[in-house]
UniProtKB/TrEMBL annotation:
InterPro entries membership: HAD-like_hydrolase_sf, HAD-like_sf, HAD_sf, PGP-like_dom2
The enzyme's E.C. designation: 3.-.-.-
Protein name (record): HAD family hydrolase
Highest taxon of source: Bacteria
PANTHER family named among the record's database cross-references: PHOSPHOGLYCOLATE PHOSPHATASE (PTHR43434:SF1)
Classification via Pfam families: Hydrolase
GO molecular function: hydrolase activity
Length: 218
């Protein structure tokens, strides 16, 4: 059985943190919260996202507030993310992993119908056994999505030889839930200080993450 990587998209393969910050500040403004710097955002961000807003508001957002926040975020994110590109070295890492005889797939909490054309537009689709985005409401956690993703990959992938590479503590929790491994990357939504308490390897580059994945599950 080959070693398999499940890649996260936003903040991992897709270098979109400037768009995420701009969209988040637009969402904050819709409910009277002041803007954040990138460092403040990365120190405060949390999944599930309503808990992040609870921290900022001092209470859970109402259903109406959540819809307002979510809509404001996604409208502005679509505008800003068009200017974003891939994280440095992604094309080479994906091609080299595939050429070495391993497999990989993509699982994102970004809406599936919006994710697929973006991934395809970067010419990445052929590198993956499967590309899955979120179905259902936004703001949730990745664990059940990963379980379904691995089940859909079937006998081609062994969870025990699978490593999820992502930028959020929730990625690691999802991997542990599914019986897989995780490596977390510091270039996205969380600071190293937020990632290390999860107890999985934390790295500063995707090249390091891939090298570790080969050793952990090889």
């Amino acid at each position: 059985m080959r070693t398999h990587i499940v890649w996260d998209w936003n903040g991992t393969l897709f270098h979109d943190m400037e768009a995420v910050l701009g969209a988040s500040n637009a969402a904050f403004a819709s409910v009277g919260i002041g803007p954040m710097t990138m460092q403040e955002y990365r120190e405060q961000y949390e999944i599930p996202i309503p808990r992040f807003y609870q921290r900022l508001l001092g209470r859970l957002p109402s259903e109406a507030e959540w819809l307002l926040l979510d809509d404001a975020f996604h409208v502005r994110y679509r505008e800003l993310s068009a200017a974003c590109g891939l994280t440095e070295g992604v094309l080479e890492l994906l091609a080299d992993w595939r050429a070495a005889g391993h497999s990989q797939s993509l699982l994102s909490m970004y809406e599936h119908e919006k994710l697929v054309p973006i991934v395809d537009g970067f010419g990445l689709t052929g590198h993956f056994l499967r590309v899955d985005g979120r179905s259902g409401p936004s703001g949730g956690q990745k664990a059940e999505h990963l379980t379904r993703h691995l089940a859909a990959l079937g006998e081609h992938v062994d969870p025990a030889r699978t490593v999820l590479i992502g930028d959020a503590a929730d990625d690691a929790l999802a991997a542990l839930h599914a019986g897989a491994h995780a490596v977390l990357y510091t270039g996205g939504s969380h600071t190293r200080e937020k990632l290390e308490p999860v107890g999985v390897p934390v790295v500063d580059s995707l090249a390091e993450a891939v090298e570790l994945a080969g050793r952990i599950a090889g």
